[in-house]
Amino acid sequence: MNGRIESIEDIEVCEEVGRGGFGVVYRGIHNKSNKEVAIKQIDLEHDQTDLFEVTKEIQIISECRLPQITRYYGCFVRHYKLWVIMEYVNGGSLFELLKPGPITDERVISVIMREVLIALQYLHNQGKIHRDLKSHNILLNQQGEVKLTDFGVSTQLSSNFSRRNTTVGTPYWMSPEVILNTCGGHNSKADIWSLGCCAYELFTGKPPLQSSFAPMKALRQISKCQTGKEFSELINLDGLDMSSSFKDFLSKCFVVNPKERYSASRLLKHKFVTSSTKDEAYNVKALKKLITNKFIWDQENYSLKSKHFYVPTDMLNDQKLWNGEVKAKDTINFDISSLHIDSNEQQGANKSNDSNQRRLDSPVSVRKLNNPNDKETNEQHNNVLEAINIYRQDSVYNTLKAELHKIVNKIFHKIDSKNSLNTQQYDLLVNLNDTILNLFSLLEYSETTEVAAYKKIVICQYFKYFLKELMKQPNELLPDNPRVILQKLILPHTLNPTMSTLKKKDSIVTSLGPSRAYNQFDEIESSLFDTWVEKMSESVQSP
Amino acid sequence: MAFLFKRNPKTPQDLIRALNEQIAKLDLGGDNIKKYQDECARYLKQIKVILHGDDENDPQPDQISLLAHEVYSTDCLYNLIYNLKKLDFDSRKDVVILFSTLLRRQIGNASPTVEYLINGKPEILIWLIKGPESSETGLVCGQILRDCIKFEVINRFILVNPLFWNYFKYVQSPVFEIATDAFVSLHDLVTTHKKLVSEFLANNYDNFTTSINQLIQSNNYVTKRQSVRLLAELVLQRQNQYFLNRYFDDTNNLKLIMLLLSNKSKNLQIEGFHIFKFFVAKPKKSQRILDILIKNKENFIAFFQNFNITSFNDSNLIDERDYILTEIQKLPDIERIN
Question: What PANTHER family does UniProt report for this protein, alphabetically (chain B) (predicted)?
């Protein structure tokens, strides 16, 4: 594929293949050539996105053309997103490929090192530094080719002599001078240290020090080393069962003084690297085998992820997300539909909850137990004791947890499929679900003997109080009381205490038209600016 | 293996001459383009070693001096720029290195390269200015041009040339990298040399304001954001006093900035705010500006009370918003002027 890709018409977007702070990556197909491409969608409206860093980044990747570096095909702006089209590398990253286990064949490591060194030599000759070299950023395709990728933090230097004085990178792969910000800061030699860490990682499965130190401690350990020898001892290089040429290669990377550390061109002549050039067919086969091994491993471990497919977002949706409006609007719609439901039916729904449902089964039963109007507090207590007896046993406890897991997953998928979440929201929701499950732990009370064995589950208590608080009826039942609005937004109509009250005084309810905006900012904004825009476009046209 | 038998150029002069020969052949075209390209690439790599040294050797000043002299006297830079498209992708980047190293070279206070570009071969600069017209070599030209702009005489040369105004076109190129690269050049052209720029903006107020206002009204999100950002940077410069006075007295400008505040994009609202605040904070406001501000007083108050910027974690920004809000509240009410 030689032509540039400059518009959405040129490509077809398929499933999601990755996510990061910057946005989402999809696999795509280039229509003309039928080739696979990777589509990186960068959300330019995201608070953390620096538009100017992004454009700089694009300049850098567009200047790299080498088989060992993922190729850039073009990019374009669509609404608030920048779509960057890159070569699709279908075998995964070395980080992924290492999951079934470390690479035992040194020859394979040697080939990978050679290919990455060619890429580094190319970059360094142009005054570019990768700055975040690690196994995650080295990709393999199914033809057995090695590709360096992700210049997320690479910097363009105006000449080989200039330096950048900022700390970036990932702890275990960072060189001493980068950590300490000495020797004039970052130069291309920092990549070589990181490359050594990658080689070590390929051989042992983990970067140096990861199994013995937390990231920040590791930084301190690395920075303490005065000589490469000290570092080799720290990582117990001598204790590793590897060839002497491999060991020598690593020792050339792990030189503390960057000036004495080998350059990429010099390492390319190292015998550990040159030794693998003889039988290329074997090399390709061995690299392909890494991918096959991972595939088999995935199947055995059921770790194949479900695929998210791309859903186009229009501008309006993007903007709603921005204002946090989508959730509100959706719920409002939901609520409006509820107005058509007969009030008898609502009461009926309430009654049906009177059966012996347990507190943990569903929010409905919790509401039942905590309804402030409920006089049968005894029954509530009995229910609680009953519940305790059940989850005292671990197995039952686990079943409950599994059930909760199912529920939160279901909720998550519902939200994810019905709304186009942005990256941050998606991540936060994932975190929330994790937190909820982690909070499924027992609280212990020992104040009274009666309840010595009285155990509660943190998250259930939380939900209970949450609903209790939420369902308290506010003093004045006006539709713009914030509590009433929150109730409307969160509670399904069958559970909404205020709604049922309001329903009786139906004059108030009918005033809640569908167009009512609950977000103060939007309301004012729209009325304010509609008039502005009108006035201004008039006066701009006829000055 | 033919190249093994070929005599490698020994001195820098030989090297430049050999390079010029190959470029001439490249210029003529023919079947052997690839061969000439490779030759050029090889010579350019050797030139780079003379200029920057390599793993074993440090660069030698006398060698560089000989090389530079030969480059000027044979118009080598012109040949390279003129044939930039015909060089291979990676060699073009070596041309950037040759330019930037030569530009930095100084004899006393003078840069012989700058002198050569201005008085010897200004055609080179014209080619560079037109760089963004080619999507293939636009980025390379942009880099060289920005190295040149670091010198005030060259910056002046470009600003007084009518071709400068093409940059407002180039920044809207459909090729994203070209557009953003042209923007970086435009930015450097009007921000690097403060005194020169203040003079330029004073003399070209109308043209400049019209051009940048057009960019601000672009439908392209990136163009819009970049141009507002550039404008915000210009109004921050005290040296641009004359420009500022006129800009902040122009109701049309205020209207455009108010439109930005009403834009759906949070980031654009903020970029717009950074200009809007000057309209409000300016001590002597013209009556027409004042009229608009007063007419919209209530709207502004409602807007700024809800101008949610906490997610940007910028305490200065919050202070500024609060200050602007107080200033607006101090404005007379609309009844009083009626």
Answer: CALCIUM-BINDING PROTEIN 39-RELATED, PROTEIN MO25
Residue of B nearest to A542 (CA): B252
Of residues B44 and A535, which shows the higher confidence score? B44
A132 assigned to active site: yes
Lookup result for tokens 């560089």: B64
Set of chain A residues whose Cβ sits within 8 Å of the Cβ of B180? 55, 58-59
Pairing relationship of beta strands A35-43 and A81-87 according to DSSP bridges: antiparallel
| A23 and A146, same domain (yes or no) | no
Co-location of A322 and A288 in the same domain: no
Contact across the interface for A63 and B93, Cβ inside 8 Å: yes
Do B306 and A525 count as a contact with CB atoms less than 8 A apart? yes
Which pLDDT value is given to residue A316?
Answer: 39
Residue with tokens 């040159």: A274
Assign A293 to helix, strand or coil. helix
Lowest mean pLDDT, pick from A145-154, A159-168, B80-89: A159-168
Q: Enter the ipTM.
A: 0.84
Interface-testing mutation among A63, A270, A530, with chain B (most B C-beta atoms within 10 A): A63
Residue B107 β-bridge partners: B110
- Cβ-Cβ contacts under 8 Å, A118 against chain B: none
Instruction: Of A434, A405, A423, A431, give the one whose Cα is nearest residue A308.
Output: A423
In tens, the pLDDT along A226-248 reads 888 888 888 888 888 899 999 99
- A-chain CB neighbours of B308 within 8 Å are 521
B224 CB neighbours in chain A (<8 A) are none
Round to whole Å and give the CA distance between B282 and B269: 20
Q: Is the pLDDT confidence value at B252 over 70?
A: yes
| Cα–Cα distance, B189 to B157 (Å, whole number) | 11
Number of structural domains, chain B? 1
Q: Which domain holds residue A23?
A: 8-87
* Residue in this structure with the two tokens 């509820």, named with its chain if needed: A338
**A46 Cβ under 8 Å from any chain B Cβ:** no
Sequence letter at residue B5 = F
Query: Is residue A315 less than 8 Å (CB to CB) from chain B?
Result: yes
**Interface contact flag, B180 A531, Cβ < 8 Å:** no
- Residue A542, token pair as written in the block: 């006829």
- Position B188 scores a pLDDT of 96
pLDDT of A315 strictly over 80: no
Cβ distance of B264 and A322 shorter than 8 Å? yes
Which H/E stretch holds residue A10?
Answer: none
Cβ A79–B181 below 8 Å, yes or no? no
- Pick the last residue of a domain from A40, A57, A87: A87
Element holding A25 (H helix, E strand): strand A23-30
DSSP string for B266-316: HHHHHHHHHHHHHHHH-SS--HHHHHHHHHTHHHHHHHHHT---GGG--HH
For residues A58 and A100, membership in a common domain is answered with no
| Assigned domain for A110 exists | yes
Burial A462-492 (b: 16+ CB within 10 A, else e): ebbeebeebbeeeeeeeeeeebbbebbbebe
Number of separate helices (H) and strands (E) present in chain B: 22, 0
Rounded Cα–Cα distance for residues A456 and B15 (Å): 84
Give DSSP secondary structure letters for A162-193.
Answer: --B----S-GGG--HHHHHT-TTSB-THHHHH
pLDDT at B235: 92
CA-based nearest residue to B149, from B210, B83, B205, B196: B196
Tell which of A301, A328, A351 closes a domain.
Answer: A301
Query: What is the rounded distance in angstroms from the CA atom of residue B178 to the CA atom of residue B181?
Result: 5
Across A137-275, where does the E strand assignment appear? Answer: 138-140, 146-148, 155-156
Residues A516-543, mean pLDDT to the nearest whole number: 51
List Cβ neighbours of B224 (8 Å cut-off, separation of 6 or more). B215, B216, B217, B218, B268
Q: Which residues of A are annotated as a binding site?
A: 40
